[in-house]
Amino acid sequence: MTEATTPPPAPRKTPLYDAHKRLGGKIIDFGGWALPVNYAAGILAEHAATRNAVGVFDVSHMGEFHFRGPKALEALQKLVTNNVARLADGQALYTVACNPKGGIVDDLIVYRVAPNHFLTVVNAANIEKDLAWFRENAANLCAIDNESDTTALIAFQGPKAIAVLETLGADELSMMPSFGFRTDVEVAGYATWVARTGYTGEDGVEIFCSPADAPGLFETLVKAAEAVGGSAAGLGARDTLRLEAKLPLYGNDLSDTTSPLEAGLGWVVKLDKGPFIGSEALVAQKTAGLQRRLVGFVMKDRGTGRHGYPVLASIAGTPGVVVGEVTSGGVGPTVGKNVGMAYVPAELATAGTQLFIDCRGKTVPAEVVSGPFYRRP
Amino acid sequence: MSDNYPSDVLYTEDHEWARIEGNLATVGITQFAVEQLGDVTQVDLPREGESVKQGQVFGSVESVKAVSDLFAPLTGKVLKVNTPLGDSPEYVNEDPYDQGWLIQIEIASPAEVEKLMQPAAYAAFIRENAD
Fold first, then answer.
1. I need a surface site. Which of A310, B53, B58, B130 has the fewest CB within 10 A?
2. Nearest residue to B42 (alpha-carbon basis) of A337, A45, A242
3. What is the phi/psi pair of residue A228, to 5°?
4. What domains can you pick out in chain A, each with its CATH number?
5. How far apart are CA A51 and CA A230, in angstroms?
């Protein structure tokens, strides 16, 4: 009997698929989602538009889980490394969730809506995995509802983002602190939740709305953005923006075999809040000292260090042994350099350390730098 | 997608063009290649005096998202290299058939020119292989 080959499933569409086509979006299959890598303007133009004015991004593919019940806080405190107890209503925090070995299951943002109600926003690629993991470990504590399919999400990022939204009726948005959010914001007549969070290194917000409202809201936001020199922006610009801001990407820089301590995310690990999944392993790792660390590097000569390229030590200015590989890398359009991240042995993880990146057979010098490559003015 | 297939050049299945003038060939990548690549950020080309061989890699073109090898449409010796592309790789996006030219070679084997595609054949090739 011959084996029937079934074609791969067609990628899923967000509520904004038609809008992307109308705007000239170059649609790709992004982890099972049909999303634009860029629109007609191109990645570099969309990157610049976000840094100079405002970029409008469809991130509806991301996952939204609601934790509800008297033990919702206890559930989240068990699942994530950061201290969720410090949140008041209308505040959010960035954190990771670890496995018992201290590896990262996902990085996510946790929002406190009310004492017994929290929202978590997780990476699209990890929706099934995270839901299963959270339920396996906390379903006995509270209800965990996956509302990803009934939640649309639009990121509105850039120095002009807040001012533009205020012209669209979002009163007093400039008063919202970073990582604050409100569930009562009207934008151009649409009922939305707005959070002052983002993944670009710019000021700006992420706007939650219903799938039915998303197309109209997105069109309004894009028009308003274009009026001030901004534009719709796709996945390509989203990646160059977060890379310049040195924000890690799960799957590249973070994985279930990297710990938050190694990844430079020690600041979201609150070992003194009480035990959580992975806390024992992280305490042991901290006590023993880290073997490797995630560092940022800039290329010192022509060449782009890309994901997977070997990283070599520099021995008296010449390429030595392979010490790691690039986890994320590419062009930094605003900073005018090619930049990237890699895990290197802890002794090489200090700013100024010289490295070489093997770029398709050619070794190019690079240097470890501390902090983000780009900081907004 | 534009249908920009100038009639004064010949084409390859690797989406490169060659403009033949006597025994000289100017080489570049086509509008189709440019649209696939997106914003070009770096071009790596051979030096003057180096040899290139038809069908073999002679350099690469990098865009934000990817690196693409360049395959020589003809065998010959590199006479000129478009060095301004070092500072201005965007010329390839803006003007792939003129200001974005890559190298100029002295053709070693004129018979190889027969293997290149006429504009109409290249246009048909694009249509047949469209996603």
1. B130
2. A337
3. -115, 15
4. 12-60+151-244 (3.30.1360.120), 63-149 (3.30.70.1400), 291-369 (2.40.30.110)
5. 9
Inter-residue long-range contacts of A10-15, CB under 8 Å, 24+ positions, other chains counted: A10/A34, A12/A61, A14/A58, A14/A60, A14/A61, A14/A152, A14/A214, A15/A60, A15/A152, A15/A211, A15/A212, A15/A214, A15/A215
* A331 and chain B in contact, CB less than 8 A: yes
Give A302 to chain B, closest Cα distance, Å.
Answer: 8
Does B1 score more than 50 pLDDT?
no
Q: Which two tokens stand for residue A85?
A: 């107890």
Tell me whether residue A209 is exposed, middle or buried, using C-beta atoms within 10 angstroms of its C-beta: 0 to 12, 13 to 18, 19 or more. buried
User: What type of residue is A137?
Assistant: N
Pairing mode of beta strands A91-98, A104-114: antiparallel
Distance from CA of A43 to the nearest CA of B (A): 7
Q: Give dist(CA A55, CA A23) in Å, integer.
A: 14
Does the interface predicted TM-score (ipTM) exceed 0.95?
no
DSSP-based three-state secondary structure for A4: coil
Q: Which residue matches tokens 């926003």?
A: A121
The beta-carbon neighbor of A44 closest among B62, B64, B67 is B64
Q: What is the mean pLDDT of chain A?
A: 97
Minimum-distance CB partner of A331 among B41, B44, B86: B41
CATH classification number, B10-109, choose in 2.40.50.100, 2.60.120.620, 3.40.50.980, 3.40.449.10: 2.40.50.100
Cβ–Cβ gap B60/A304 under 8 Å: no
User: Which one, of A132, A107, A119, lies nearest residue A68 by Cα?
Assistant: A119
Whether residue A373 contacts residue A361, with contact meaning beta carbons closer than 8 Å, is answered with no
User: What residues are paired with B71 via a beta bridge?
Assistant: B57
pLDDT digit string, tens, across residues A195-248: 999 999 999 999 999 999 999 999 999 999 999 999 999 999 999 999 999 999
pLDDT above 80: residue B3:
no
Q: Considering only residues 228 to 267 of chain A, which have any Cβ-Cβ distance to chain B shorter than 8 Å?
A: 236, 240
Each residue's pLDDT tens digit, A146-170: 999 999 999 999 999 999 999 999 9
Q: What is the mean pLDDT of residues B22-32?
A: 97
pLDDT at residue A3 in the model: 64
Question: Minimal Cα–Cα distance from B20 to chain A, Å?
Answer: 31
Residue B38 contacts A where some CB pair is shorter than 8 Å: yes
Across the interface, of B39, B44, B67, the residue whose CB is closest to A43 is B39
Q: Is A219 exposed, middle or buried (0-12, 13-18, 19+ CB in 10 A)?
A: middle
Opening angle at CA A200, ends A196 and A204, nearest 5? 30
Distance from CA of A98 to the nearest CA of B (A): 30
Q: Which residues in chain A have Cβ-Cβ distances shorter than 8 Å to B38? A: 26, 37-38, 42-43, 236
